[in-house]
Amino acid sequence: MAFAHGIRGDIYSNLGDTAKAIKDFSEGIRMTPEAINLYEKRAKLYYMQGNDELAEADYRRIMALDPGNLISYIGLGLVAIEQQRWEDAIKQFDYVEKLDTDYSLAYSFKAETYFRMEKWDEGTDDLIRALDYNRWDEKAGDLVTELEEPARTMFITKLKLKSAKTPNEAYWPNLLALMYAQKNEFDIAIDFFKQAIEIDADPNLYAGLAYCYASVGNYRGAIKEIDLALNMDSTMTDIRVDRARFYYEAGDIEKAFTELDEVIKVCPDDYESYYLRGWYKEIVGDLEGAVEDLSMCLVINPNYTFSLLSRADAYMKQGKKELAETDFKAIIDKEEKNGDYDCAHYAYQALGFDDKSIEIMEQIIKEDTTEAGAYYDAACLYGRMGNKEKSLEYVTKALEKGFRRFAHMTMDDDIDLIRDTDEYKELIRKYDIPNDSLPDNGDESRNGVADGEGAISEIPFTKGSGVCTVKCEINGLPLHFVFDTGASTVTLSMVEATFMMKNGYLKESDVVGSGRFMDANGNVSVGTIINLKKVTFGDSELTNVRASVVRNQKAPLLLGQSVLGRLGKIEIDNQRRVIRITH
After folding, report:
1. DSSP letters of 437-450?
2. Fewer CB under 10 Å: which end of the chain, C or N?
3. Could you give the CA distance from residue 101 to residue 92 in angstroms, rounded to a whole number?
4. Which has the closest alpha carbon to 498: 574, 443, 555, 546?
């Protein structure tokens, strides 16, 4: 019965009915007074309610039942933070650190406490410790996102020092890139993404770099990075959707349609792809197709107001005013309920409430005065109102803030009112600079591939026992590898790794860490991650390639995606027994 009360309490908690959840947890505790998990659940709910005394009582009861329980000390520390008893909070988190030095939450909550005390130096030190022990610590991630000055500059300085001390770890330059991108400092972010890719050519890093290129208007460069990411992992549907966006923004709407068609075939329930395809159809005048796609998006996600707006616009162009007004009203109803405005300003304007529309638009801009897209939205809104002067004013502000979606601007009928004006044409001449003036991403050497783009090379293989074996040199040592497109990395057994370490082909500084790896058969192996400074495969030479050393002495040598994904298009010619690579 106590177990049943605990499960029902979980259900009530997930439903948001805290009172019934606490009642069930309390009944379970009455039946089984030593059930630590029920105290933990009840204490958490008390804490979330702001009932600090009851939360603290439960955490102390847990401590009495299990003196080494980390949750009890974390809980007491959180209660102390809420009551602004900073030193008591630090004391609890320090004790957690003594019990388990690898428990990242001890450091991330301690960092939060120091930040509230305005002890920036101590707080940034603990924040880096938290991320060092657990890169997926959600609390630490939230703190990084929320950092303000002077903590942000101090944290970035320490991150750079950490990166310099651990040159084989891509995580730290990646984090630096994300932090600069968050503040729209994309040129600096691009440099750090490139630095991370030099260490570990991970598809997510290429995707991050693509986002930065797109943000400065270099959509061709962004597409190139997405292509590299998809070479490594073709299953990343979300970045295929990004590639469709980049095709559109580069002015190649047909490729955007083709990409979205392919994504929808693979993921027929991806509402965003239906929205984009529908929106693009509305822009080019395929109104029936637009309504069909946008309606499909709303079947999958009824609350996606962007799709309601595009469908309303399509209905208006078809002369179906009543259907359009229904969608505009639905937008207002949905966004007013949650107080989060995305499209309501357009809806109010379409229904004749210009003052309310302007009020919401100004509120959106005020929330983040650095967001260039908000200023462009204002230009579109005033364009719909027929206010040429205001539309030009806000287009100017958008471009000054970094808005660089020029292909979209040529097709967007919201700014038809100003497109033929001399002022608008002068703005486009001023800001629409050629791609070769944008941050460069054409240097193939950073991807570690010596061959030029489009070069074709052939590598012979031998076949036996159902596998293809190829020659490959690791740091100058010739080895034979199984060609395994399903493996994520190059994989060595402990035998080869030990030999390489003893004979100078590997150094201690090449050891990066540890991780879990899956091969094409779904087998998971625990191994050490190492950095291979040079991998020669056929006539291709790659630098800084990640590899895993599997503890199994008999593990085969696998040539996986950390090499193959960086080479380009790969074909296997079984008749000639060669692997053909188009770089």
Report:
1. GSPP---GGGGT--
2. N
3. 13
4. 555
Kindly tell me the sign of the dihedral angle through the C-alpha atoms of 84, 85, 86, 88. Answer: negative
Phi-psi region of 413 (alpha: psi -120 to 50; beta: other; left: phi over 0): alpha
The answer to whether residues 475 and 532 touch, using CB atoms and an 8 Å cutoff, is: yes
369 lies in some domain: no
Q: Which of 192, 217, 242 is the endpoint of a domain?
A: 217
More confident residue, 458 or 176: 176
The C-alpha atoms of residue 332 and residue 374 are separated, in whole angstroms, by 18
What length is written for the chain?
Answer: 583
The answer to the question of residue 569 being in a domain is yes
What average pLDDT does range 204-225 have in this prediction? Answer: 94
Give the domain-ending residue among 191, 217, 243. Answer: 217
Burial class (CB in 10 A: 0-12, 13-18, 19+), 554: exposed
Residue 464 β-bridge partners: 467
- In this prediction the pTM is 0.79
Positive or negative CA dihedral for 344, 350, 352, 354? Answer: positive
CA 202/CA 172 separation, integer angstroms = 14
CA atoms of 447 and 567, how far apart (whole Å): 9
Residue with tokens 């970045």: 239
Classify burial at 373, counting beta carbons within 10 Å of its beta carbon; exposed 0-12, middle 13-18, buried 19 or more. Answer: middle
Range of the domain at 513: 448-582
Q: Strands 569-573 and 578-582, how do they pair?
A: antiparallel
CA distance 408 to 246: 11
Quick check: helix, strand or coil at residue 526?
strand
110 inside domain: yes
Residue 81 CA: distances (Å) to CA of 45, 51, 61, 75, 421: 16, 13, 19, 10, 58
Q: Are 557 and 496 in contact (CB under 8 A)?
A: yes
- pLDDT tens digits for range 351-375: 999 999 999 999 999 998 989 999 9
What tens digit of pLDDT does each residue of 474-532 get? 898 988 888 776 666 788 888 888 888 899 988 887 887 665 555 445 555 556 888 88
The answer to whether position 529 is within a domain reads yes
Distance CA(401)–CA(405), nearest Å, equals 12
More confident residue, 457 or 507: 507
Structurally, how many domains does the chain consist of?
2
Run of H or E including 122? helix 120-133
Q: What is the DSSP string of 455-490?
A: -EEEEE-EEETTEEEEEEEETTEEEEEEE-TT-SSE
Domain of 169, CATH number, reads 1.25.40.10
